[in-house]
Amino acid sequence: MSDLGHDTPHASGPSLWPIAFAIGVACLLLGLVISWIVAAIGAVIAVVFGVLWARDVTRDVREEVPHVEPETRAVADAPTAATQSSATPEPLEGYTRSRFLEASTLGLGAAIGAIVTLPVLGFTVLPSFTNLDETEADLGPIENFPEGTFVIATYLAQKAQGEVSRRTSFVRYNGLVENPANQGRREPSFTILYSRCVHLGCPVQPNGPIDEEAATKVGGVDLRPVLAQSFGCPCHGGLYDSEGNRRAGPPVRSLDRQEYSIRNGHLVLGPNYAVGNVSGTGATAAISRYPWSVPGTHVDGIEAWLYPIVPSQVTG
Amino acid sequence: MAAQSKRQQLVDTAILAPLDWIDERTAAVTGTKWFLFRNVPRDVSWSQTLGSAALTAFIVQALTGGILAMYYEPSAAIDPVTGKPVAYSTIESITSDLTLGWLVRGMHRWGASVFIILLFLHMGRVFLFGAYKYPRELTWITGVLILATGMLMGFTGYLLPWDQTAYWASAVGINLNGTAPFAGPWLAQFLAGGPEISTETLPKFYAMHMLLIPGLLIPLIGIHIYLVTRLGVPSPPWSSEAAGRERPPAQPTGARAGLVRGSGGD
């Protein structure tokens, strides 16, 4: 009892009951809002574990602390003289309270930080990939497209977006072609090249005179026939032939094309797809098609290994 | 003499005492002295002022940008009055309607180029003088990060006028990012907010230009300046006081004796 002087710091033994006490208090406060039963349960929990907590921390004041023999182990090897002779052995490197508090503060801080940050990061990044509207554009009756001639079609890809979504495609009607997939029925065939340069996305222009007198405007879509057998990009000099194959300049693939369907006699443009190479012309052209990707990315050849997964493969 | 001492007393009570009061609590005066009253080599020249010039250009950008933000609106919606997109209309009104708006916008627009040019000149000076060497490697690295974020500021700011130049330059810039291996297409789609530039791209670029990138750039500048202050300005390579060498005991006269920080002086 001599060491009970005031200069000796006194710390009560460790106790787990404060955790349960805190849960009880939280339950009580929650119950005040939602129901009296929950509040009562919370109060009971708080009182019970409060009492247990109080018993725990006051144990050494209330009663004699039982003297526990320190655990010992038989030493197998003969101890060295040095360790035997040392009267007070070095205190073991314990997992102290301060280290525990430090680790739990850092850990809890990291957990809270992650809980707050992850949804925000998701909100920063994900809408660009998930909230994509299906783009379809009605270019009007197919009679407006003369056979064998390109027509510059300018249209709004997304009406809600307004002028920002104004796109241009080069549409050529290839005439009626037998479709073996549809019992050999003769169906209209179109070559639809998307005007965006596959170098860096500038607007590709047709190299040829535009027949302004034959220009029509159908339901917000501008249609201007043009005599063009090639397309050039004003930004960096990319040149494409009438099938969209690269002929000169920096583009890395052929011009993108667009899916299309004929609905009620109207030509309706669907999503884009990337094109590696086109052999043949018009309706009989063999098109190597790939998932759409941003301009400047290779779709075939060894360079395509640099772009193994592109967003359109994931988002559809 | 009595009058002077009275004046001295006045200065003490009116200026020095409050400063002491503040300094005792914040170390603000000590810190300011530490920051401003530094020894520099005797043979520094105008070329060592390029960093301060770049900082000044940045401060001009921050101030004019903050003021422009009071009048600019990053919306691609069509203004019912002008029939043009709101962003472009606000730019037009800043330039031609608002008093001195042309000046502030011009300062911001041309100041952006000035800032980047000064960064490059400053970088070239540091490189040619070998001022990036031990112990100033981290100053160099933070400087490179400042250059990168400064160029990000230029990239995001270019779209904001929302005219044809802005649109197509940003389209090319976004697609340039898109050609980076592996992550490129994802980065491009993130920047544009979809497969192509849309109405959502404009406020996104505005938020980056106004909030996110300055939040990165300003701390970087702070760290950079702290490091410059802490490590001091090195003497130029042709200096008689080569860095890290003890001052030769027999200098001809005091005239050519550079004052090298850390060399002990006299």
Structure summary, number of beta strands of chain B: 0
Quaternary structure of the protein: heterodimer
The beta-strand count of chain A equals 13
Low-confidence stretches of chain A: 1-5
**Main sheet of chain A, how many strands, which sense, barrel?**
5 strands, antiparallel
Helical element count of chain B?
Answer: 9
Indicate the structural class of chain A: alpha+beta
What order do the SSEs of chain A take from the amino end to the carboxyl end, as H and E?
Answer: HHHHHEEEEEEEEEEEEEH
Strand fraction of chain A equals 25-35%
CATH topology of the largest domain in chain A: Rieske Iron-sulfur Protein
Average pLDDT score of chain A: 87
Distance between the first and last residues' Cα of chain A:
78 Å
Secondary-structure-based class of chain B equals mainly alpha
Compute the separation of the termini of chain B in Å: 35 Å
CATH topology of the domain at 46-231 in chain B: Cytochrome Bc1 Complex, Chain C
Total domain modules of chain A? 2
Task: Name the CATH class of the domain at 46-231 in chain B.
Answer: Mainly Alpha
- Provide the helix percentage of chain B: 55-70%
The CATH superfamily of the domain at 46-231 in chain B is Cytochrome Bc1 Complex, Chain C
For the largest interface, the chains and their residue counts are: A-B, 31 and 29 residues
Mean pLDDT of chain B: 89
Description:
The complex is a heterodimer of chains A (316) and B (266). Chain A has 316 residues and is an alpha+beta fold. Chain A has two domains: 13-60; 134-315, 3-layer Sandwich (Rieske Iron-sulfur Protein). Chain A contains six helices and 13 strands. A five-stranded antiparallel beta sheet of chain A has the order 4-3-2-7-6, with no helix packed on it. In chain A, strands 1, 11, 12 and 13 form a four-stranded antiparallel beta sheet that branches. A four-stranded antiparallel beta sheet of chain A has the order 5-8-9-10, with no helix packed on it. In chain A, α1 (17-34) packs antiparallel against α2 (36-62). The termini of chain A are far apart. The model of chain A is unreliable at 1-5 (pLDDT under 50). With 266 residues, chain B is an all-alpha fold. Chain B has a domain at 46-231: Cytochrome Bc1 Complex, Chain C (Up-down Bundle). In chain B, 64% of the residues lie in helices and 0% in strands. Chain B contains nine helices and no strands. Chain B has helices at residues 2-26, 28-36, 50-68, 86-96, 101-128, 137-158, 164-178, 184-192, 201-231. In chain B, α3 packs antiparallel against α5 and α7 packs antiparallel against α8. The radius of gyration of chain B is 25 Å and the shape is globular. Chain B starts with a helix and ends in a 35-residue tail after the last helix. The relative contact order of chain B is 0.11. Residues 251-266 of chain B have low confidence and may be disordered. Chains A and B meet through α5 of A and α7 and α8 of B.
